[in-house]
Amino acid sequence: MTANKSDVRLSVQQLRKVYGVGSRNEVEAVRSLTFDLHAGEFACLVGPSGSGKTTLLKCIAGLLEPTSGEVVLDGRRVAGPAEGMAVVFQEYSRSLFPWLSVEDNVELPLKTSGVPKAERKERVSEALEAVSLSHATKSYPWQLSGGMQQRVAIARAVASNPSVLLMDEPFAAVDAQTRGELEDLVRDVWKRLNMTILFVTHDIDESVYLAERVLVLSSSPTIIQADLHIDLPDVRSQADTRSLHRFGELRHQVYEEVQFAKINPGGERTAAREELRS
Amino acid sequence: MIVLKRIGMWFGLPAILIAIWWATTAQGVNFFVPKPDKMASTFAKVWYSEKFFTDVLPSIGRLSISLLISLVLGVVLGIAIGLSRNLRWLLEPLLEFVRAVPSTILIPVLLLLIGINDTMKVAVIVLGCLWPILLNTVEGVRSLDEVLKNTARVYGLRGFDRIRYLVLPGASPLIMAGIRHSLAVGLILLVVSEMFASTDGIGYSIINFQNRVAIPEMWSGIVLLGIIGVLLSVAFQAIQKRVLGWYYGLKEASNDG
Amino acid sequence: METQTPTLSSVAVSTLPTREHRVRRAARWTAVGPYVLGVAGILAALIVWELYSVFGPVSQHHLPPPSVVLPTFFTNLTFTQFWMTMGQTMWAWFLGLGIATLGGVAVGLLIGSSEFLRSATHTSIEFLRPIPAVGMIPLAALLFGPRIGAELMIVVYGCFWIIMIQVLYGITDIDKVANDTVHTMRMTWLQRVRHLVLPTLLPYLMTGIRIAATVALILAISSELIVGTPGIGRAVAQAQLNDNPPAMIALILTSGVLGILVNLIFRFIERKVLFWHTSVRSEVAA
Ligand SMILES: Nc1ncnc2c1ncn2[C@@H]1O[C@H](COP(=O)(O)OP(=O)(O)OP(=O)(O)O)[C@@H](O)[C@H]1O
Ligand SMILES: [Mg+2]
């Protein structure tokens, strides 16, 4: 994919985030992040725990104000939650409204953005079907297992037809079987609706299987340590793609980067490594 | 068998208590405690009469109107204060003080300012019932889950929608706790304001019976208050169960896990 | 706004100091805001009251402005009579609350200790509890006359239920799991009380006493207003009869101060007790 200026959808420029500015315990969560996401791109973000992945996502979603630098969406600077963006939060169980049933949870964003009732109903049942929860529409979130709750959150995000979808470790609580199905589901909607997806995960296999591009963060204070292109075939399937030779190579590459990231705070050792390599 | 046992559990002790009451008052005439049968007939005679319309209904009316006003004011102001940090800082010390004033002490002042009428009683009750609801609403709004708030922001819940779908239901467990507190305080204030200065109402009747040393009639008034209290708490619990069904389910689920 | 990235990032760099400046200013405001605004709020309320009293629709005689009330309030503090009145209210409050606590805990523990007693007393409690304690005022007046006994009877009746019900809640909450662990750990009766019963019960009891403390003050003053037992309530009623609104409102301010003191004392005690409670809790868990 060639990066030409016109199809940049999301641009993160020298993003820096310090928590608790002006207080005694300032925490520099993110030092300086710069990258672009193109329209229709699927990127995975991997990095050690506490490296600021959630922080970055919140800045992109307009939930946090960056300390400096900025996030530009479709040419406009993000200063608050933007239209057409959906987020699946890491704390999935707390992000569902416990006083609404499953279908009401999925329907709420559509209702408040003025989608007509008939279309709403259709989109809700479609989204719930896609995450195989059609049997639990009338239940309350707290009556479901963790994995099911997570799927409700995904259905809600998908039903709102976002142009940019941010997902923060969305499959952490689901079993391996469901996980595979959900991965295929996400890739499927991504292709169908031509969304731009930024997907945070801890799972290296998952990042390689899902994305066209993997961004590896260093440990805190965070920079982008590596930006890898995943040149796997466009049509992927759990059984075939994962057994490709290239899959193993890419997996290995990401693994090395992640290992290195743990001992590379602020990218301070990147230069030394490059020297060693050449 | 189980049903019998259940009935025994429910009515056993009250039956025993009434039997003891009967036995101890049967022989001698106790000045302060009337016999149960006398009590029952007096109750019917006193309250199953036009007094129901001239005293009981006015009292119930005052209480309901005051509770309604307190509820609306408390929730609206509570949400405004809970949502705005600066408003909270501005009003917190003031509210802390106003809330701490034991509300019955305001009765003489309001009597001077407003006079002996329904407005005075409603003002007294509202000035007592408002604070538990208001402060609990503020607390409820403040304790909204951070992730839930972020979710609402991302999905574009703004203005009235945000209050309707996020703030109100999220604060409802604490609002209900505030209402329960207000019910108890409201009944106290109703009775005291009627006792202190009134020409009708249950409180007025009771104090009137006391002045006439009509002991069984006075007791019947106390029993009536008890009945009203029980009815209020039953009604409240029924409403609470409906409104907070999700909350109890959630709590149970998180206790299991 | 330009869409080209280079322009944007240069904008970002140039706005950088102002943004940081704004964030720092917000942080400073967070530190001082509550005090500045809190004082402002109280001053504003006093000014509104003053203006309302002078220009508002009610007579200035009935609602004297703070410039009249506050001096009365402060001179009151120099009178022994005033302190005695306060003392009478607080003494009745303290005694009533104490008796109700002892009684409520004793009866609550007794009933709570047995499943049978709990269900057998359920209906009786559900009927007796909602009778508002002020309903007892005429009875207390007949039995004791305008003396402290009447006030105590009302306060104790009102607070007893609150505390007893909280104790019952607490006992129901001593969860079976903890109970089993302690059983298997072969603790003595005393250790069980110390490590299981007390830590679970105390928060409930403290909540009960705190709620009861506010209710007790309301009830004590109600009794003074209506039965005429000595204390602030009676002083207010007398000031009303003597047509002395400034004295009345000064006394009401005083009752507010008392209320705040009560709240502060209980918050302090609760913090101490619950601190102890959590430390014991984690000890057991470890
Ligand atoms: N609200 C906050 N206040 C202060 N520090 C915070 C806050 N939120 C996060 N941090 C700090 O910022 C750093 C990055 O946190 P963040 O949650 O973004 O990490 P993460 O990469 O999402 O981690 P994980 O993989 O465990 O979810 C951490 O050191 C964390 O302690
Ligand atoms: Mg995270």
Architecture blueprint of SSEs:
The complex is a heterotrimer of chains A (about 280), B (about 260) and C (about 290).
Chain A lengths: L7 E12 L7 E12 L3 E5 L6 H9 L6 E6 L2 E2 L7 E4 L13 H11 L4 H14 L15 H14 L4 E5 L7 H18 L2 E5 L3 H7 L2 E5 L4 E8 L8 H5 L2 H18 L7 H8 L1
Parallel strand pairs in A: 2-10, 3-8, 3-9, 6-7, 7-8
Antiparallel strand pairs in A: 1-2, 1-4, 4-5, 9-10
Helix pairs in contact in A: 2-3, 2-4, 3-4, 6-8
Chain B lengths: L1 H25 L9 H12 L3 H33 L1 H16 L6 H8 L3 H25 L3 H9 L4 H38 L5 H10 L3 H29 L1 H12 L1
Chain C lengths: L4 H51 L10 H11 L3 H33 L2 H14 L8 H8 L3 H26 L2 H9 L4 H38 L5 H10 L3 H41 L1
Helix pairs in contact in C: 2-10, 3-6, 3-8, 5-6, 6-8, 8-9, 8-10, 9-10
Describe this structure as you would to a colleague.
- The complex is a heterotrimer of chains A (278), B (257) and C (286).
- Chain A contains nine helices and ten strands.
- Chain A is an alpha/beta fold and 278 residues long.
- Chain A has a ten-stranded mixed beta sheet with strand order 5-4-1-2-10-9-3-8-7-6, sandwiched between helices.
- In chain B, α2 (36-47) packs across α10, α3 (51-83) runs parallel beside α6 (118-142) and α8 packs parallel to α9.
- Chain C has helices at 5-55, 66-76, 80-112, 115-128, 137-144, 148-173, 176-184, 189-226, 232-241, 245-285.
- In chain C, α9 runs antiparallel to α10 (245-285).
- The model of chain C is unreliable at 1-14 and 278-286 (pLDDT under 50).
- Classes of the chains: A alpha/beta (278), B mainly alpha (257), C mainly alpha (286).
- The interface between A and C is medium-sized, with 19 and 15 residues.
- Adenosine-5'-triphosphate is lined by residues 19-20, 27, 29, 47, 49-55, 90, 220 of chain A.
- The site of magnesium ion (MG) has 4 residues of chain A, from α1.
